[in-house]
Amino acid sequence: MRELFLSAARGEATARPPVWLMRQAGRYLPEYRELRADYTFREAISTPSIAEEITLQPFERFALDAVVIYSDILVALEPMGIDYHLESGVGPVIDTPIEGPEAVPQSHEPVGTSLGYIGDLLERVSEQVGDQAATLGFAGGPFTLASYAVAGEPSKNHVPIRGFRAEHPDAFVELLERFTDVVLEFLQFQVEHGADAVQLFDTYAGLLGPADYREHLLPLHQQILSSVDVPTIFFVRNMGGRLPTLAESGADVVGLDWTVDMAEARSVLGDQPVQGNLDPTDLLGDPAFVERRTREVIEAAGPAGHILNLGHGIDRRTPVESVEAFVETAHSFEW
Q1: Do residues 259 and 238 touch, judged by C-beta distance below 8 A?
Q2: Which residues, in sequence order, are bridge partners of residue 86?
Q3: Per-residue pLDDT averaged across 66-94, rounded?
Q4: The whole model's pTM is what?
Q5: How many angstroms separate the most distant Cα atoms in the chain?
Q6: Of 10, 42, 61, 72, which one is the catalytic site residue?
Q7: CA distance 225 to 164
Q8: Quick check: 240 pLDDT over 90?
Q9: Residue range 216-244: average pLDDT?
Q10: Which of 48, 195, 199, 217 could form a disulfide with 120 if both were Cys (CB 3.0 to 4.6 A apart)?
């Protein structure tokens, strides 16, 4: 339910935790696979009527408390004139990666011009779900987007962007600032078109060391998150030892990956609302296993300021029955 989600995001006690899943509209659902057989990924995310249908599939099946739009973090490349495509077995590929300072984009097209289809999608979804669920928008963070733009494809440990930082420190700063401008405008655009809350995914930012993170990324995250007038969720992986730094971002809700002990996080973060953090591979177990592990997360998180989710996106091999068990455990839980 929309109000249940927003109450938890404000840090309030709730009778049960609101629940949704990162990447909840996707390949584990048979109805998704059937629909996607007729469209490429880019066609599906950029056609509002198709993206709306896909967005609503998990909501209609599971009665989730939040509906996240079907899109991709890489759409934020479009206003900067950076093209991309998906290659089977590889993932997103950028044919002309940023290889040096001269290739850093100096400007971007207005988000509403490049990504108007996202605004259309949000309006459609918001109208469909009403008060039954919160409508969520999202964007990739500047470091994660820069990593793809420099490497040109998924990169283990993101060595290309970290190397770019060392070889071209001024251009590294400039590239992050350019992406920050786009992401900030993009999230504001989503709020204008109906998003009840937004999530910033700077998923790979935790691969920067503590000093570099604090110098280069924390101020940008603060700038982005403070510019949005609805509840914000902030997600970075591999930050278990730096939880207070995540809280310094100013996010209303701190997303926790599955490597973080929930009880310890709540002790460290105090009243800071949190989201997470069941291991996505737990959903590969049978329903009884899923229920037990989900209850453990809920009980460790406590009754106030907790949004139940996975510690990362749902795996494509996940049985639908396990997702049902995960969601139903939240729905039936009572404090």
Answers
A1: yes
A2: 92
A3: 89
A4: 0.96
A5: 57
A6: 72
A7: 26
A8: no
A9: 96
A10: 48
DSSP helix/strand/coil, 89:
coil
Per the CB < 8 A criterion, the answer to whether 169 and 155 are in contact is no
Has 36 been annotated as catalytic? Answer: yes
Q: Are 196 and 253 in contact (CB under 8 A)?
A: no
Q: Is 10 tagged catalytic?
A: no
**Among this protein's residues, is 214 annotated catalytic?**
no
Q: Per the residue annotation, which of 10, 36, 61, 295 is the catalytic one?
A: 36
Please identify which residue in the block is written with the tokens 């910033």.
200
Output the CA–CA distances (angstroms, integers) from residue 32 to 54, 263, 278, 287, in the order listed: 6, 35, 23, 22
pLDDT at 89 over 80: no
Selecting among 32, 70, 148, 213, the annotated active-site residue is 148
CA 144 to each of CA 55, 281, 288, 297: distance values in angstroms, whole numbers, following the listed order: 23, 23, 36, 28
162 flagged as catalytic: no
Residue 88 in this model has a pLDDT that exceeds 90: no
- Cβ-contact 74, 82 below 8 angstroms: no
What is 162-231 written as a DSSP string? HHHHHH-HHHHHHHHHHHHHHHHHHHHHHHHTT-SEEEEE-TTGGGS-HHHIIIIIHHHHHHHHHT-SS-
Which residues lie closer than 8 Å to 149 by C-beta, 6 or more apart?
77, 82, 94, 97, 98, 175, 179
Q: Of the candidates 333, 278, 275, which has an alpha carbon nearest to the alpha carbon of residue 307?
A: 275
Q: How far is residue 167's CA from residue 213's CA, in Å, rounded to a whole number?
A: 17
282: left (phi over 0), alpha (psi -120 to 50) or beta: alpha
Annotated catalytic residue, options 16, 23, 162, 165:
23
